Amino acid sequence: MDTKTLFNPTNDKVDTEKKQLKERFIHIPQGKCGRFSRSTKDYLDIDGLHTDEFSTCNILLFIGQDKFSLAHVDARVHLDVEQEIQWVGHPNKIIIISRPEEVSQIIQKQIVNTLNKANLFNIEKINIAEENETVIVRLPKCQENVINPQIECLPIAKAPEDLLHHPLEEKFQIIQKIEQVIGIQALQETQKINKTRVIFDGATWQPIPQSELEIDSSHPSTKVEMQGLQSKRKFIDIAVETFKVINKNHVTGKVPFKGDMQKTATNIAVHLESYLNKGVDAEAIMLNNLKELIDDYKPVAKEDSQFKANFKKQLSEKNITVDALNQMVTKFEKELPKSLNTHFKDNFFDMFEMLNTHYHARIKYQKLNTANAALKQQLRPNNTAAKQHLDNQQYQEALNLFSQGVHNTTSCCLANAPEIAMAHYNYGKTLYKQNQYEKALFFLTTAANLVAKYPKQQFKHMTIESTKQAVLECQEKLNAASTQKQEIEKTNSGIENSSSQHAYAPVFSTISTTNTDATAVTISNIQTNSPNPF
Questions:
Q1: Is it the case that residue 364 has pLDDT exceeding 90?
Q2: How far apart are CA 240 and CA 475, in angstroms?
Q3: pLDDT averaged over the chain?
Q4: Which residue(s) pair with 34 in the sheet?
Q5: What is the spatial distance between Cα 312 and Cα 479, in angstroms, rounded to a whole number?
Q6: Which DSSP category does 12 fall into?
Q7: What is the DSSP string of 170-218?
Q8: Which H/E stretch holds residue 477?
Q9: What pLDDT, on the 0 to 100 scale, is given for residue 56?
Q10: Distance CA 203, CA 411 (A)
Q11: In terms of Cα–Cα distance, which of 137, 150, 139 is closest to 40?
């Protein structure tokens, strides 16, 4: 198909009435892949997938009958195309979202060639404008058999407010950024690219191995690179050392570099600073950086000297905050004569803006970690209160609290956390008792999947057999209800003495109570008319 340019969507492409409500989206960061199904929308009240921070890489969408996946793909990010096709079923359509720049277009062509080799030709290519940094793939609520996700490309300022982030996103993203410079030589020699790509499987956040949250210094070249950085804690020192690594690899021809070497070193140094200063809060890191920064530049004009003196004075105050210093810098910028153009002014402001951007990113993750900790603290008392409501036959109150438990654990827990399996199980069992069998089946099946996939976890009263039995009982009720409905319909239409078909097939032919291979224990053969969580 011909390449298209995607503008801001028109009203006929966006469910504007729904947008007035607060929507929730799963955020898929750079280098990762996320999955979404009709069940994600219908049962977890999540509206779609979101991503940003892509320049040369492409965004690849596989759209199936009732599922889709979104992945970042570039020269360094390997995507298992067969795995995604297997998950979505044979895709009805594949969409590649790219920038018009040359490198992005080269990657786009490589992706198309790979897809064509897999006999996939129904490909739509979309180029997006530079100012659009956010991509939203929303799944509207619909009754059709085939889903039709809506795609929006927007400026970062118009990104959704309620984004769900992987609980370990900050850690694995820091490593992803650092490895753009550190360990490149080792990667070229070993071709070792073995990272977790799928971080959301349509129901839960996937665990990330500890090895992917640390720099692998096992290769001699990476070990030497990190030795020069381990003793560094100040930003400027880290940036200088990072520059040395890039320049050495370039000069020796081991890793040729194109672009602004100093700018790249500075940007990567921010992430190295976070990695090397684990446990230090964002405010402290930023204040230390500003003390270095203001001393590093010499004033040129008298306005520079006056600002530097005032800035250092504020920095020395006991309870100074980054927000107060931000206000001071903004005021200084506004009051400066437009004709004043000095080395101090340009360099200080550029560096301050860059550090400030990363400061706010660190603050975002600090708030995320605090919010997730608060959600986890709510789980036990909410669960206790819900069970008390059940004992008192206050079923709606219990359902509300168990539903909140699923909502909270989906946000703050990984798939291998016992709390998330327990939340799905409790909610599913309560729905079952209230005769909401179809909805109950989704949550009970999710719980059964998790208990089977992570058998080494402590799930208290939940076992593979008990969760399996709960799902089977729920299916029996659904089958009976379906049979009864069909008999009534046949009677009403004058059709008698004919056998009826069961709506739900057995689901446990692929579950093993002893197999601990995570890929082999997923409940996979629920029919398409059954709510399938994966």
A1: yes
A2: 63
A3: 83
A4: 70, 200
A5: 74
A6: G
A7: HHHHHHHHHTTTTTHHHHHHH-------EEEESSSBPP--GGGGS----
A8: helix 464-492
A9: 84
A10: 11
A11: 139
Q: In 81-145, which ranges are continuous DSSP H helix? A: 81-88, 102-117
Cβ-contact 91, 62 below 8 angstroms? yes
pLDDT digits (tens, 9 = 90+) for 8-46: 333 344 444 444 458 999 999 998 999 999 999 999 999
CA-wise closest residue to 172 among 321, 252, 274, 242: 274
> Over 60: is that where the pLDDT of 454 sits?
yes
- Structure-token pair, residue 164: 């769900």
Please provide the size of the chain in residues. Answer: 534
pLDDT in tens, 99-112: 988 889 999 999 99
Helix (H) or strand (E) holding 50: strand 48-52
Distances (CA, A) of 39 to 27, 204, 438: 18, 12, 11
The single residue listed with the structure tokens 């980054």 is 322
Strand partners, 200: 34, 205
- Token pair 């799905």 in the structure block, residue: 424
CA torsion 289-295-301-305 (nearest 10°) is 100
Degrees to nearest 5, angle at CA 441 with 435 and 445: 150
Distance CA(396)–CA(494), nearest Å, equals 39
Query: What spatial distance separates the first Cα and last Cα of the chain, rounded to whole Å?
Result: 31
pTM (2 d.p.): 0.84
CB half-sphere exposure, 85, CA atoms < 13 A:
13
What is the residue whose two structure tokens read 């709390």? Answer: 419
**For range 401-408, the mean pLDDT:** 96
3-state secondary structure 133-180: CEEEEECCCCCCCCCCCEEEEECHHHCCCCEECCCCHHHHHHHHHHCC
DSSP 285-353: HHHHHHHHHHHHS---SHHHHHHHHHHHHHHTSTT--HHHHHHHHHHHHHHS-TT---HHHHHHHHHHH
Query: Scanning the structure block, which residue is given the tokens 């909270």?
Result: 408
Contact 276, 232 (CB under 8 A): yes
- Alpha-helix residue ranges (DSSP H) falling in 392-463: 395-412, 418-433, 437-453
Is the distance from CB of 449 to CB of 468 less than 8 angstroms? no
Signed CA dihedral, 163, 166, 170, 172: sign only:
negative
Residue 41 CB partners (closer than 8 Å, separation 6+): 47, 48, 139, 141
8 A C-beta contact, residue 243 and residue 261: yes
Measuring CA to CA, which residue among 438, 460, 431 is closest to residue 533? Answer: 438
Which amino acid is residue 228, in one-letter code? G
Residue 441 reports pLDDT greater than 90: yes
Amino acid at position 262, single letter = Q
pLDDT of residue 147: 87
402 contacts 440 by C-beta, under 8 angstroms: no
* pLDDT number for residue 344: 80
Place of tokens 């210093």: 325
Q: Of 196, 207, 211, whose CA–CA distance to 418 is shortest?
A: 207
Token readout for 362 is 């660190």
Q: Which two tokens stand for residue 133?
A: 């940094």
